[in-house]
Amino acid sequence: MARLRVREPDTLTRVTEYVPEIVVFVEGIISNGFAYEAEGSVYFNTLAFDKSDGHDYAKLEPWSKNNRDLLEEGEGNHRRFCELSNY
After folding, report:
1. Mode of pairing for the β-strands spanning 41-44 and 35-38
2. Do residues 61 and 67 lie in contact, with contact meaning Cβ atoms separated by under 8 Å?
3. Could you give the CA distance from residue 78 to residue 75 in angstroms, rounded to a whole number?
4. Could you give the CA distance from residue 68 to residue 13 in angstroms, rounded to a whole number?
5. Cα 83 to chain center, whole Å?
6. Confidence (pTM)
7. Which residue in 53, 59, 68, 72 has a CA-CA distance of 20 to 30 Å to 80?
8. CA atoms within 13 A on the CB side of 34
9. How many Å apart are CA 8 and CA 5, to the nearest integer?
10. Whole-number Cα distances in Å, 70 to 2, 20, 27, 47, 67
11. Which letter does DSSP use for residue 67 in this model?
């Protein structure tokens, strides 16, 4: 990181110190309709996000929008990964 001229952190935090705030944040995303719960996990709803005014999920990589190969290699295909890796 030093070669990239990235400064060392001056404060370290642990995610466990912010669990209540994270839960409230995720609940807000769900209540706004941009995420949903399924089988104990929370997933971001990219379609709902894209349909809302002023939002574009593929803003940083517009060429990747609706690319099925990328979607299938993402976390949405975690069950297939578990089947293949015997988890």
Report:
1. antiparallel
2. no
3. 5
4. 37
5. 22
6. 0.56
7. 59
8. 14
9. 9
10. 32, 32, 27, 15, 6
11. -
